[in-house]
Write a structure and sequence with these properties.
By secondary structure, the chain is of the alpha+beta class. Helix content is 21%, strand content 22%.
Length: 111
């Protein structure tokens, strides 16, 4: 569900929420929770039901801000890392810790 662009909302317990991601593992849940709380959001998480005990435990991560859309916030570079850098799509997806704003390849073209 990572940066799908669709604004998904619903409820966790009795609280209306915007879903950030569903079906994530504990590591991803912790990363998103820390990042979003650092940016001032109230984060709620919920364990998803498992079909069997052998299945891994997955989680739903959501925020109480009903207008929050992760895709918009990431691509408009509104989110900040704990050390103050702007969050990029690669950082959001935990592909890299590098948050340089370049969206292009810095290598010169081959002749």
């Amino acid at each position: 569900m990572s940066l799908a662009g669709k604004h998904m909302f619903g409820s966790i317990e009795d609280t209306r929420v915007t879903f950030v991601e569903k079906g994530v593992d504990a590591n991803r849940r912790d990363f998103l929770k820390a990042l979003l709380e650092h940016n001032g959001f109230e984060v709620l998480t919920e364990e998803e039901k498992r079909k069997s005990e052998e299945d891994p435990q997955l989680y739903t991560v959501a925020v109480t801000d009903m207008v929050f859309n992760p895709t918009i916030w990431v691509y408009q570079r509104k989110l900040r890392t704990p050390d103050g850098r702007k969050v990029t799509p690669a950082y959001w997806n935990q592909q890299t810790e590098d948050t340089r704003p370049q969206y292009w390849d810095e290598k010169p073209p081959k002749e």
